[in-house]
Structures are given as C-alpha cells and as structure tokens.
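Notes from hallway chat w/ T.B., transcribed later so I don't forget. T.B. wanted the structure written out for a chain they're using in a teaching module, and asked if we could keep both sequence and structure tokens in one place. Agreed to drop them here.
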Amino acid sequence: MNMKQWLEDLKNAPCKKALPVLSFPCIHLMGITVRELIADSDLQAKGMKLVADRVDAAASVSMMDLSVEAEAFGARIQVSDDEVPTVVGALVTDEEAAQALAVPAVGAGRTGKYVQAIEKACRLITDRPVFAGIIGPFSLAGRLMDVTEAMVNCYEEPDMVHLILEKATEFLVAYAKAYKAAGANGIVMAEPLAGLLSPDMAQEFSEPYVRQIVEAVQDDNFLVIYHNCGDNTVRMIDSILRTGSAAYHFGNSISMKEMLEKVPQDIVVMGNVDPAAQLRNGTPESVRAETLSILRDCGNYSNFVISSGCDIPPASPWENIDAFFAAVEEYYHPAQ
C-alpha cells in the first residue's frame, strides 16, 4: 500500500474516519484477560481483527504495550488481568551498568510474539492499514533507568543517558524493521516521557534518536506516527516536527486547537479524547459530548483526525467506544 498516498487521502477527505489507539479493549470481545492476550500472538491478531470488524476506523493499531521492549532488555514487569503491563524497578542504575547493558535481538522476551501477531493480523485485516505499536527511545531509556532517575540523570549523568539512548535506538530500529518485514504499514511510536522534558532537553535527549529511527524505516510504504501525551508538547513542537515523522498524535493534556495552529497544514495531527476520564470512566453521553466538542473546535482543520488522546485502557466499556465512533459519524454526517 502506498502509505504516503493513504495519508494524503485521509487529509483530503471531507468526512474523516477516526483513528483511535484502540486494541486492548478487544479482551471484552473475546472474554479473555490482558495476561492471556499479551502471551499469545494468535489472540492478539484475532483481537485486532474483531476490533476492525466492529469499528470503521481509518487503520488498525496493535497492542500499545510499552513494557515489551524494556522486558526484552531484561527489565522486570508486572502483569495483571485487566491493566497494561508495567515495568518495575530499574535495570540500569550507574555508568557501569549502562556500559554492560546488552542490546537484545528482536525476538527476546515477548517481542517475537508481537511481531508474529502483526504478521497474522495483516493476513486477517486487508481493508485498512495495520500499524504496530512501539515505544520511543527516551521513554524506553526511562523505563530502563526508572522514570524519575532518568529525568535527574539528564542533568547529572548526561553521557550515561546518551549511552543508554544509543542502545535503545539500535534495538528500536531493528524492532521497527522486523515489523516492516512482517507486513505492517507503519508504526505508532509512543514517546510520552519526552513530554516531561523541557524543550531544550527534549531536543537533546529525544529528537535526534527519534529522527534516527524515522530515517531508518520510513518510506512511501511505511509510516511513522509519533505519539506524545506530555504536557509540554505545544512548547516543544518545533523539535517534535524535526523528527520527520509522517504524522503526529497528541494527548488530552493540551489544547488540540492550540497545537493545530502551530503545525503546518500539510502535516496530519491526531488526538485527543481523554482515554481515562472519558473512554474508560465516562458515560456514552459524556464521551459523545467531548468528542463533538473537539471536532467542533478542530474539524475545520483539514489536517486534523479525531482520535483518543492515548491508548484506550483495556477495561474501557464498549458502550463508550461505540459512542465515540457514533459521535464522529454524527459530526461528519449530521441527520438532515
């Protein structure tokens, strides 16, 4: 599929399809747990197919599990039945550990299962692009060091942070290439931890490494969608745009209208219905109200595509997810 053309068509469509980061709620459609889902590539592919059959989204997005890459490096993770896995503790605590940190092969931990899931999903889903989810380089480095320590180390141990970032980026390039070889049409790269940095720090510790990944894999047939749900994204937008990603996805902590005013009109921007307060914990009525409110503010921008602000939590009720899609339909195709 010519993905540059797909993105152009998405931008030029007068009635745009939504593109939420929607995968984990498939557990309710299958009657399984998150624990079962993340361990089985067949279940992941089946879940993506069930979601694609239920909603008229612009693309299918795989499990946005930001523990997978850190686990492949050796980090310990905590798994539960109804939440996305999380990284526990720190794997790298000093310069010596950073030097000794080995770059894993793709296939380590659960990364092999996730690549297989995309390969299987691409055979099942043929009416829209399929995107794999990966973590961004600074967000991965933060999980290897511990998030709080990573922020401190940017000031106190910058050389160590850069060393970890180099190794993280080396792995992420290989991982993205594996997804590309498996048939994915692109990746959604989640770099939320960079959103906590100052613009200058993000320019040093995130931008060049994201750009390295983009330059290694992005072409006409494979796109990188950059995601950042941090509070500082409006302030750091120039740095974010310099990554060269094909499209950008932002969280609900910012004004999407303010962001759109800072992004060139030929670049697609996505977001930002609150995934926790609304899609997880809201009601169909409140989801409809927030979705329509964002569309009324931003729908007149030709480069705006409505989405969730981040990954939709596993326990989100399908009544709320259905209400989101119904609101998009209502906005673009109002009853006469």
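Follow-up for T.B.: The longest helix spans residues 158-181. Might be a good example for the class.
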